[in-house]
Write a structure and sequence with these properties.
Length: 143
């Protein structure tokens, strides 16, 4: 099907996911992020594609008619950087980001070289703010 989403949600096998993270440092960061996102959202993690851990979901419908389902927030322990997904973007998050620590921002991703260089309480605040912002556009669901 042409409009079918490439990235789908599936149950997360925590041990298998962590075993697939090559670097011991990234693996430890992924474990910390699993706990941090769980605290921030109150939701269980799910796997989106082969390497993204998502918390919650939302269904979207664009003016073009394109529709789909995506994770509400989450992360991926990539080799070079941690990718943190705060959707739909960072329009009003400057004051929070200024307190976070070293990071880079993409359209809907936050990139962190090392988790121990950022303020994790501020990261939790950012996750909650991102979910609140997302919920202004589309209903956000736990699963």
């Amino acid at each position: 099907m042409a409009n079918e989403a490439k990235t789908k949600s599936a149950a997360l096998d925590r041990e298998a996911f962590l075993a697939g993270v090559e670097s011991p440092e990234r693996r430890a960061e992924a474990l910390r992020l699993l706990d941090l996102f769980g605290r921030a959202t109150g939701w269980e993690p799910r796997l989106w594609g082969p390497s993204i851990v998502g918390f919650g979901r939302y269904d979207y419908l664009y003016d073009s008619g394109h529709r789909g389902t995506s994770l509400a927030t989450g992360f991926s322990p990539r080799r070079a950087e941690l990718s943190v997904y705060i959707l739909p973007g960072y329009t009003d998050f400057g004051p929070i980001l200024s307190r976070l620590g070293p990071h880079r921002v993409g359209k809907s991703c936050l990139y962190l070289k090392r988790l121990d260089k950022v303020d994790e309480a501020v990261l939790e605040e950012l996750i909650r703010a991102g979910l609140a912002d997302l919920a202004k556009l589309w209903p956000v669901h736990a699963v």
